[in-house]
Each structure stands twice: as structure tokens, then as C-alpha cells.
Amino acid sequence: MGTKTYGLIILGMVLEAVLIICAQEAAPPSVDLYEALPEATVTPTVPPNGPELPELKQLDATFKPPNLGSDAEWTKLRVEWRQLRNRTVNDPQVQAAKAYAQSARTDLEKRDRLREYYSMYYQRMSALTTNADIKLALDSFKASHQNALAQPRVRPSPIPEGATPTPTAAPRHKKAAQKHHKVKMTR
Asked: I need a surface site. Which of 37, 72, 126, 148 has the fewest CB within 10 A?
């Protein structure tokens, strides 16, 4: 394509723009597109004590931060819980209670000491916060930790000191008995 073609294209665009501009001026200014509406006299009614103000509850709801969703709320709760945990773990009395629980000789003694440790640990964390949601979460964490220490299927049987437990006969398995029986039959 040559320069003449480009020139013709540009000339056509300029002419089109001029026609559009002139078309806007084609209507005479005396044309009224809207019929005259009668002017109504409206007087605003103002309450005697000034404008009506919203209730305090409405204002609180207006300025309340929006709910970010359950995932965001859980994340905020978890961040605050971790900050409390970091502050509580570094407490010397909590560290001493944990070391005392870990040094137990028997499993029963260790579980009892761990219950005491978890009680102290979560009590300290609860004392450091004022958030009710965190306190509820701490109570549930404490309950889950202490429930994990319970052994409902183990029945403690005290063995007197100095006594040795008596061995019980080992139960025979059916497969071993059947195998032994088959060997006798083939002979």
C-alpha cells in the first residue's frame, strides 16, 4: 500500500469526525425536549429536636468489623494461641513442671504428673488472655490433652511388693492344633 492509500484513509477519518461534530450542532437550541413541569413547593419537615439519630446498637453494628469467615477467624485464633503458648512455654515454673513429669519412673506416675502440668500450663495461658474465644479454645485443648492421658481399658491391679507374678499358660492356637492333628491322621 502506498502513501496515497494512507492519505485517503486519514482524510476519510477527518471528514467523518467533522461530520459528527457538525451533527451535534444541527439541533436548534430552542427545541425543548422536556415539557415544563409545574414547580411544586416542597418544604422539608424538620423534627423539633433536630435530625433523627440512629440508636447506639445500629451505630455499633455499622462500625463493627466485618466477619472474615470461619477460616480467617480460626487463623486469628490460632495466631493468638501460638503467641500465648510461646510466652507460657518459656515460664520457668512451667518448664520445671514439664521436666518433673518427664522424670517419672512409672507410666501411671507420669500420667498423673502430666495432668498437673497441663492444668498449670493452660491455667497460665488463660490468665494471659482476655479473649473469650481463646479461653474456650484453651479449655477444649486442655480437655483433649488430659483425655489423651486416660487409659479406660487398662485395669490397674496392684501387685504386692516382693511377690512375683505367676505365669499363665499360653493359649493354644487352632491352626497349630489342626496341623498337628493332620500329621497324625496321615501316618
From this structure: 37
